[in-house]
Amino acid sequence: MRQGESINFKSDLKLIDMTNLRNCFDTASIYCGTYAKYNNGSLYGKWLNLSDYSDYDELLTAMYELHSDEQDPEFMFQDYECPILEKLGLLSECHISKDIYDVLEQINDSGHNVKVYEACLDCLGSMDFQSLYEYVNNFYYGEFSSDEDFVQWLYEDDMFNIPNWVVIDWSATARSIMYDYFESDGHYFRA
After folding, report:
1. What is the spatial distance between Cα 148 and Cα 7, in angstroms, rounded to a whole number?
2. Residue 50 CB partners (closer than 8 Å, separation 6+)
3. Cβ proximity of 159 and 151 under 8 Å
């Protein structure tokens, strides 16, 4: 059976999935230092929570203010939280993409938890965000506790139009059907 799904609440402006917001945007943070400080033996910097800034420009301003003692600071992101940003190539030790806020907002607005996107990347490997977003929207089936539960859900959803009097070996059926699906961390996708 399906494990618990997140609950959506309607606001005046848009549909907000509170689980997504908590799991992705509110917890996404970077530790911002500079290469000059690092090369001089200092790890001085600060954890910046991305949710504290409305957009990339505001974040960039905060980074320049943090390192105002340098004329032209070369930022170094020595640590960060929210692994999907790195997997999508939006964040690395020496780079933070201008698209980071747009991607986080699209994940938040998608109705899927960030773990779904991470699971899809685990199954398929590296890809750009738009391709990932489309793949999840078209081929994500849900979260299940086992392959057998997933296959039983497919059966109950009448995907295979099998009469209910047929006795099925769910383990054997799941092994066969899983050639056409991917799974990571309990999240299932059509191959």
Report:
1. 25
2. 25, 28, 29, 30, 59, 82, 100, 101, 104
3. no
Q: From residue 99, how far is each of 50, 120, 160 by CA, in Å?
A: 13, 20, 41
Structure token pair of residue 144: 């299940």
* Degrees to nearest 5, angle at CA 26 with 25 and 32: 85
Quick check: 84 and 34 in contact, CB under 8 A? no
Closest Cα partner for 185 from 126, 120, 112?
120
> Which residues are paired to 144 by β-bridges?
2
Judged on CB neighbours under 10 Å (0-12, 13-18, 19+), 15 is exposed
Tens-digit pLDDT profile for residues 72-110: 999 999 999 888 888 899 999 999 999 999 998 898 888
CA atoms 170, 175, 180, 182: torsion sign: positive
Q: End-to-end distance of the chain based on CA atoms, in angstroms? A: 21
Residues 6+ apart with CB under 8 A from 15: 8, 9, 109, 111
Tell me the pLDDT tens digit for each residue of 43-59. 999 999 998 999 999 99
Q: Report the C-alpha gap between 151 and 157 in whole angstroms.
A: 10
CB 145 within 8 A of CB 2: no
Contact 189, 118 (CB under 8 A): no
